[in-house]
Amino acid sequence: MFYGKRKFPFWAKLAGLALLVVAGFLTGYLGYTLYRELTAPPPEMPASPGPVPLPEPSLQFQEPPGVHTPVPAPEPPLPPALPGRAKSDQLWLHVVKGTYRMYLYRGRNVERTFDVAVGANGGQKQRVGDSRTPTGDFTVQQIQRSSSWTYDFGDGNGPIPGAYGPWFIRLKTPGWSGIGIHGTHDPHSIGTMITQGCIRMRNHELEELKKTVFVGMKVVISE
What we know:
Blueprint: H1 10-39, E1 91-96, E2 101-106, E3 109-115, E4 118-119, E5 136-145, E6 150-152, E7 159-161, E8 167-172, E9 180-182, E10 193-195, E11 199-200, H2 203-210, E12 218-222
Parallel strand pairs: 1-12, 4-10, 9-11
Antiparallel strand pairs: 1-2, 2-3, 5-8, 5-12, 6-7, 8-9
């Protein structure tokens, strides 16, 4: 039986040719893409951050909560400039009203410092009863035992025994009388302006001072 050669239409040939071209293109494209992926270098990893620098420890001392550095006590005021010349072995007193202190000098050297109280009003004494301590150069006139003396301060409490302490060192203050250095029944008043013109001391310190005081001793009182 004879079979004849089958003929395909022209459009079928064109379609087959187009399919071959498309297949070849896809094969080449896919091969090229696969080749690029296989030969491409690996992607770069993001740079890792370096070590974070720690803050340097402070050299300044940090106090724990609730703890405070104690504040040093203020230094006592220096004695004032000498009001005049003094012999090297001469004992004398200098009362400074503004700092409520009395200095016992030997010549130009301070041997002892005492806290005192002075007149209730400041400035130079002007009249009797003005509660001012006079300023100037004076001397010790008399040393009297005053432990039995009383004084009425006019506060309604009547005469107060021991108001002058154990001793009254009377000063020779021209123009004024009754001015002296004495003790007190009220030690809390020391360091204030409270007296009627005298210089007031603590009783136990007055006892110490009395051992060195003598009639004619120089006493300087300044502002």
